[in-house]
Amino acid sequence: MKQFALWCARHRVTVVAVWVALIAALAGGVLTAGSAFTDSTNIPDSESGTAYGLLAQQAGATAMSAESGTIVWHSDGATIDSDGVRQDVSAMLAQIAQLPGVSAVDNPYAGAGSEHINPSVNTLRMRQ
């Protein structure tokens, strides 16, 4: 190792030129390869591909994705569990249910959904 260090010290210009050439080659390789990333889940025998396959089997042929979303509703004037707010939320959820690609919309006022209502801050949260 001592011999290599002495050689590098004696041939500084050559060492710097080799480093510059290596960095240029690496940069050229990166630029040539580009950003060939993909978010495809159709890779055979991958965990994502298997998961999407199982979801499609469970949901049927119309299943396009397994995405979900969260809707937050906040009321400044009336309490979140008042009849007027319930009607507004129910009307909004009915419109969302009619959108293309929406397969299910839960009602936060019914059954287990009521755990997502926070009357102390007049807010409800729905996970779709």
Total beta strands: 3
Q: Estimate the mean pLDDT confidence.
A: 79
Summed up, the helix count is 4
Fraction of residues in β-strands: 5-15%
Distance between the termini: 63 Å
Q: Provide the gyration radius in Å.
A: 29 Å
Major pleated sheet: 3 strands, antiparallel
The main sheet orders its strands as: 1-3-2
Structural class: mainly alpha
Secondary structure: helix percent: 40-55%
Number of domains as seen in the coordinates: 3
Low-confidence runs (pLDDT<50, min 5 residues)?
Answer: none
Overall body shape: elongated
**Order of helix and strand elements from N to C terminus:** HHHEHEE
Describe this entry's structure for a reader:
- With 128 residues, the protein is mainly alpha-helical.
- The mean pLDDT is 79.
- It is built from 4 helices and 3 strands.
- The chain has a 3-stranded antiparallel sheet with strand order 1-3-2, with no helix packed on it.
- It is elongated, with a radius of gyration of 29 Å.
- The chain has 3 domains: 32 residues; 28 residues, no CATH class; 59 residues.
Descriptive keywords:
128 residues, mainly alpha, 3 domains, three-stranded antiparallel β-sheet, 3 strands, 46% helix, 9% strand
In short:
The chain has 128 residues and is mainly α. The chain has 4 helices and 3 strands; from the N terminus they run H-H-H-E-H-E-E.
Layout of strands and helices, then pairs:
Layout (H helix, E strand, L loop, with lengths): L1 H9 L1 H22 L13 H13 L10 E5 L8 H15 L19 E2 L4 E5 L1
Antiparallel strand pairs: 1-3, 2-3
